[in-house]
Amino acid sequence: MANSLHAAFQAIANVRNEQELKLALKDTVGQHFGVQRWGIYLLNDQSTAEIDAQSIPAVCLESNPVGRYVVERHAPAHEQLILSPGDWKDICPRSDHEHVMTGPIVCDGRLVGTLNLARAKGNPPFNGNDLADLSALCIHLSTKLATLRAQPKTFPPSLACPLTPRELQIAELVAQGLTNTEIAARLWISQNSVKQALKRMFRKLKVSARAEMVARLQDILVSARIN
Questions:
Q1: pLDDT for residue 19 is more than 50
Q2: In CATH terms, is domain 165-226 a member of 1.10.10.10?
Q3: Distances in whole angstroms, Cα of residue 120 to Cα of each of 61, 87, 117
Q4: How many Cα atoms sit within 13 Å of 53 on the Cβ side?
Q5: Where are the alpha helices (DSSP H) in the chain?
Q6: For the segment 73-102, what is each residue's pLDDT rounded down to a tens digit?
Q7: Is the whole-model pTM more than 0.70?
Q8: CATH 1.10.390.10, domain 2-150, yes or no
């Protein structure tokens, strides 16, 4: 079991972007924790990790006491840690969520996501060892995510990318979190020019939002490296 956890740590260390981060645990989490369903959910991210049939919906952070515990303490929890025996069935009667465990993904002091695990009916509940392993895994995920988000994003020209060099330059500044006003000042162009360029870029990439555009460009670059 320890070997699979070390394999997960190594897989997380080797990823190059957030999209790869979501897939890094595909071959290790289910085996290590003995779960039938699991998933990574990043807040404010529409592309949650859908890993075949193993992924599970994000924990409801408002009404689920396990989720509330994670939000309030930034610490992992399973249902038997905070609920009396049998109470979890009243909250979630699903047989494929007989036992649940959730861990926090934290960046810059904020909860930015969760790693969610579920065991189906007939399986044992999570225990202290599971909780300790999930805590270690979430530390690695949080550290890697912070590193990825601190890195400046660059999008070199690629035959697979429909954007012009100037549009890629704008995309890089968008990825750094600059506003249209800041991009205009940086590139010595008008705000309207930035706005119109973004509209063209959205059409070319078939996206409708800035974050979606950045993610799409990252996917294009990854595909180009693989091919």
A1: yes
A2: yes
A3: 21, 16, 10
A4: 2
A5: 2-14, 18-23, 29-33, 65-73, 79-82, 87-91, 128-150, 165-175, 180-187, 191-205, 210-226
A6: 999 999 999 998 788 888 888 888 999 999
A7: no
A8: no
